Amino acid sequence: MTLYNLLALTAWRSEAPRAYGFVHLSFFFVGLTVAVYLAIKLKNIDEKRFNRVLFVCGLLLLIFEGYKQLFLTFYLNDGIFMWNNFPFHLCSMPMYLCLIYPFIKTYRKKKAIYTFMATYNFLGGFLSFIEPSGILNEYWILTYHSLFWHMMLVFIGLLIAFNINCSFDLRGFKDAVRLFMVLAVLAYLINIDVLYFTEQQTNMFFIGPLSSPLVVFDYISDNYGWFLNMLLYSTVLSFGAYIIYLLITLCFYRRSIEIHH
Q1: Positive or negative, the Cα torsion across 130, 135, 136, 140?
Q2: Percent of the chain with pLDDT over 90
Q3: Given a cut of 60, is residue 260 above it in pLDDT?
């Protein structure tokens, strides 16, 4: 059996599920219930087990993304890799961070990764279910990939919060913002390199120089340019992450003091 034929076995195709329809809402509520249950079940686990759970999450994301890339490249695009599908969007970051963080020994850097995934990535995963146009596809394998992927981001964020592994001081959140900025710069460099070295286009992190596909920000980038859009989008995203950080602090700061004393 060829790779194409193998991929064709999962190429179930029909009309894309409707936003706020049965598939969308049932997956959201069931998935969120499971994510909350597992996060509570796994709260207060020791560091070794916590590291193992996060690493397994990274492996699951890697396996799902690997199959998605094979499907997109060899089933839909005749073996031609499309750079707009390259997994370096904001919501792709936990796949890398969950796999590399066990090898990071610096406490502050590990805390920055935890805080980044519990704020920026949790926010991105949750908002994808609020505005689901980017995760509902006519190919069911792609739809369920996106639904599973973004619910995994929600679970990872909850897992980190329930295990009191976020930073609870402003310096810690600033480190998460710096990590976001570093990753955004890398995403921008990818966008520029793809435009320069290939005949394709991509817009990792949706920061430009191409127009943003996001609601509201598409109007800003089309009418006022990608640079202003990048500044506003990054600011709004970071403000949203800061709100999540404040909520985590409000809910878990007292318990973190009790645990460490």
Answers
A1: negative
A2: 78
A3: no
3-state secondary structure 136-202: CCCEHHHHHHHHHHHHHHHHHHHHHHHCCCCCCCHHHHHHHHHHHHHHHHHHHHHHHHHHHHCCCCC
User: Cβ atoms within 10 A of the Cβ of 189, count?
Assistant: 11
The Cα–Cα gap between 135 and 149 comes to 10
What pLDDT does residue 261 have?
A: 47
pTM here is 0.94
SS (H, E, C) the chain: CCHHHHHHCCCCECCCCCCCCHHHHHHHHHHHHHHHHHHHHCCCCCHHHHHHHHHHHHHHHHHHHHHHHHHHHHHHCCCCCCHHHCCCCHHHHHHHHHHHHHHCCCHHHHHHHHHHHHHHHHHHHHHHHHCHHHCCCCEHHHHHHHHHHHHHHHHHHHHHHHCCCCCCCHHHHHHHHHHHHHHHHHHHHHHHHHHHHCCCCCCHHHCCCCCCCCCCHHHHHHHHCHHHHHHHHHHHHHHHHHHHHHHHHHHHHHHHHHHHC
CA dihedral for 94, 97, 102, 106, sign (positive or negative)? negative
* 167 or 107: which leads in pLDDT: 107
Q: What is the pLDDT of residues 23-46, one digit of tens each?
A: 999 999 999 999 999 999 999 899
Distance CA 256, CA 258 (A): 5
Angle at 61 between CA 60 and CA 64, to 5 degrees: 85
Residue 147 corresponds to which tokens in the numbers above?
């639904």
- Token couple for 14: 């029909």
- Rounded Cα distance between 180 and 123, Å, is 13
